[in-house]
Amino acid sequence: MTAITFTVDLEDPSERYAPDGRYIAMTQRILDMCEALNCKATFFTIGRIAESAPQLVRDIAARGHEIAYHSHNHVSLTKEAPARFKRESAEDKDKLQQLAGHEVIGFRAPRFSLTPASAWTLGILGELGFRYSSSIMPTDVSLFGFPDAPRTAFTWPNGMVEFPLPVAALGKYRLPYLGGIYLYTMPFFALRGFLRRAGDNEVLWTYTHPYDFDSEEPFKRMPHTPLWISTVLWMARKKAAGKIRRVLELGTAPPLRDRLGEAAAANR
Ligand SMILES: [Zn+2]
Question: Which domains does the chain have, with CATH numbers?
Answer without folding.
Answer: 4-267 (3.20.20.370)
